[in-house]
User: What shape does this take?
Amino acid sequence: MNIWIAIAVTVVGCYAVKLAGLLVPAGALERPLVQRTAALLPVALLAALTAQQAFADGRVLVLDAKAAGLAAAALALLLRAPFLVVIGAAVVVTAGVRALAG
Amino acid sequence: MLQTCVLSLLAFTGASQFALVGALAGGGSPFTAAVGAVFLSMRNAFYGIRLSQLLALPRAVRPLAAHMVIDETTAVSLAQHGRRAARIGFVVTGVSLYLLWNLSTFLGALGAEAIGDTATWGLDAAGPAVFLALLAPMVRTTTQRAVAAVAVLLGLGLLPVLPSGVPVLAAALAVPVVLYVEGHKRVEGRRTQRAQQASDDSAQGEDR
Assistant: This one.
């Protein structure tokens, strides 16, 4: 039963947070500084998220095969490779490094 | 099994779901677990602010669209040129991800451990690679690059110190920091420009 309560709280809370962002009135966003901040926020959040997914396991920082995979993806991006090639490069290199190392 | 699927269907934010399940499995109180999970989803509010500008959704659609405000839909929408493409990107990503996410939750709950460790196949690198590819067009200007760099430092640096979910939020501080430094530079630039002009003026005065 307790677990259902936790699920309910999470569900309602997560939805409220999402909706709150969408419902911020457009008028509040007209100031240039607010606009610039709002435009840059996703960049900051996504960048941090990407880094954490690549270099962290839980709360511990790690440098493993994933880093090599991400480097391969970055290289593919610089070479203007198509999206799927970029992802493929990351997956293949990561698996390759893991196979060689272990 | 039912609980897992309901959570996926109604919450639809991966990080929060994992956090809730992790905290509950670790013996945490349901309430603390739920609060932690909600806190993890805070960044979706920031995404929503940006998306509501970008997509200009009619008021009636917003409650429905809100369900799909997540990392992936934001990343895809922001990578598009023009409102139409952004809207299409948002809906296609949202709907397909919703279906796949819940299908895989269902299969996972059924007990698909038979797949084995996804790490062996390097599939865990696909996540960050996708985000990197989506992020790339968003970091063209110096300001954007500076924000991304500071955010990465904050996100990784604070990871061992703060509870999970908080470092990503703290990384949002990169925006005011970079904008402040930039504003500072611009004021200084203007000052030197003005001083330059003043000396030019006086030089002209001497000519006369």
The radius of gyration of chain A is 20 Å. The beta strands of chain A are 56-57, 60-61. Residues 65 and 97 of chain A are 6 Å apart (CA to CA). The mean pLDDT of chain A is 84.
